Amino acid sequence: MLHIIDNFPLQHSFLESTHSGDTVILKDNAVYAVKQENIKESLTEKTFAHLNLCVSKADLLLRNISNNELLRGVAILDNMNDFQDTLIDDIACRSYN
Q1: Higher-confidence position of 75 and 96
Q2: Cβ-count burial of 64 within 10 angstroms (0-12 exposed, 13-18 middle, 19+ buried)?
Q3: Dihedral of CA 52/4/68/60: which sign?
Q4: Which domain holds residue 14?
């Protein structure tokens, strides 16, 4: 399932609704959740390990977040085509805004 989130900090109820292999697109302020320095505030790195995490390059640039600050394994969506490809791969979609 695809989850689209734009709020930070992430809600623990979000965690309860994810399953191993789910894809999570973090948009807007939610990109702060995958910064290494915020990991204790958002969730644990171990929790994120079973999810496919994606962030928008534009959201990172707007918030002055470099790739070096991100957790390992986070995919950066460079453009709208990458975003659409991710949407096509996952039929079901749940948004937490």
Answers
A1: 75
A2: exposed
A3: positive
A4: 2-96
